[in-house]
Input
Amino acid sequence: MLLSAAETMTFSANNGDSRFPVTDFLFDAGRGNVKYAALDIGGWFDQTQVLISANRLGEPDTAKREFVINLASDEVENAPKWEPDGDSFPFDMAHLPPLVVGPFGSTYAPLMMAAQMNEAQANDDADESADLPPGADRLDRFSIWLGTEVFGSDGELGRLGDILLDPAKMELTHFVVETGGILSTQEHVLPYQTLRHMAKGDTHLVLSTSKAAVEKSPKPKDIKALDQGSIDALRLHYGLPM
Output
């Protein structure tokens, strides 16, 4: 059974006592291995995210939309904290006035306050990144890749609609590329091994295939339960080594 990356981010992780929403997955793009799952442990009004190793996720229950995890609640809550964005002070410092007079005649400098808050935020981010598992800050994320434009050897192919993964091995197996317009969208399946690279700045994905090969490729419904014959046929279609 293969899982949709887009769907896994609507799952929860259930340890028998609590359910923690899955917010993202971090993976090694070069090897196609999923390394960590990001879980929200903060509740309704406080999104606090932690990273747990993907090998602590059990078999997924697609009916319940959850993974079983073999971690106690205190182990989950004490897992490395993860802040995916690291946003700094949200105001445009260039447009702040140099000095503001308060309601009781006191003065303060918004520019200095903003700089101090940015410095504090940077220190917090540095502290958080120091607690992350080694190499986690260099991994890619499902949420960044999904929806990006995809290019091949002869131009734009479409957009990345999904990534398929083998949950038993936590390995990425296929891309699902969407072509056509809003009313004529078609999905095409490509082996993960067609990946060349993600462009700098995560602007687009580059695959080693052509438009013609993608147009004649299998559809997602044909490969949800792949046997070895189907895998070999798909690799042959894209000219990959057997």
Remarks:
- The radius of gyration is 22 Å.
- The first strand starts at residue 3 and ends at 4.
- Residues 235 and 241 are 7 Å apart (CA to CA).
